[in-house]
Amino acid sequence: MKQLFLATAMAAVSCGVCAADEAIAPSGNVEFGFSSTTGNSEVTTVKGKAEYTHWLGQFENRYLLEALYTEDEDQVSKERYYGEAQTNNRFSETSYLFGFLSNDIDKFSGYRYVATVAAGYGHRLYQGDKMYLDGELGPGYSYKRVDTAQAPDSGNESSVIARANLDFWWAFSDNAEFRQKLSSDVSLSGNATISKAESSVTANLVGALAMKFAFNIKHTTKPVDDKESLDTETSMTLLYKF
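-> structure tokens emitted (242 positions)
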């Protein structure tokens, strides 16, 4: 079954490389945040994120890369690298089939990495003048490789999952927008379910430059070893749109 999910999603993602001569102009954004304190406490945090979207015929291809690094009193307290790719075969104005791949490397989660592949159906649930809501649902497969240094008594996890995703966007003024993303990889094999949420407000500054305020939540139902179930992150970054 794992091979079936992997082959389906890989086929959907790879289809996006067909018909390159029909490509529409790509778009994306890059954001970067940095903070450093010295004196009684010395903390340095660096965050970077890049998103890129391009069209090949009726295929909409999206890519995301993200990194977070925090050093507290010369000790690394957070280090995370995340990447995902998704292709949407939009066969109508409101409906599409998607293929999704991701890899999450969070060095303080108890896992060395969490790899996910999924495929399914997406639909635009609501479309307004300055607002939309997209929903996605489909089967998939997740493999969680345990970090034995952090959790020596835990084993690797292979799970058939149901992936659910909601994406809400609202331009509530001419210069600002709100975005709410919700996703959950629900384990159907009795292992950990990982859910994520990001709430963000982006305000234009000048030209293509904007300021982004974001609050992220990550919840794991069955964390390994003695790890916390809930991780949160509040960030403020500069964002460049292209």
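The chain has a mean pLDDT of 90.
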